[in-house]
Amino acid sequence: MEHLNVDLDKEWLSVADICGYMDVSEFVVTSLLRSGGLPAVKFGREWRVARRDFEDWINAQRFEAMTRKTLGRTS
Q1: Is 26:34 a contact under the CB 8 Å cutoff?
Q2: 39 contact partners, CB below 8 Å, separation of at least 6
Q3: Quick count: other Cβ atoms within 10 Å of Cβ 15?
Q4: How many CB atoms lie within 10 A of CB 26?
Q5: Is the terminal CB of the chain with fewer CB neighbours within 10 Å at N or C?
Q6: What are the boundaries of each domain within the chain?
Q7: pTM of the prediction?
Q8: pLDDT tier at 2 (50, 70, 90 boundaries)?
């Protein structure tokens, strides 16, 4: 998967930044933001996600996936 020149050094990420980084549609990202699944602020019509919140969210998703995988194994 190729990341589309996303500058994750910015303090605030746009929906387009997250879409480019994760290679998902705008619908997926905005649904996640509207549901509160990913912390964000809305400035007028534009969503912004603090880079730190995005990194924390990604790491939590990875941990959750690894935990599910580990718990799903039988000994």
Answers
A1: no
A2: 49, 50, 53, 57
A3: 19
A4: 12
A5: C
A6: 12-72
A7: 0.77
A8: very low
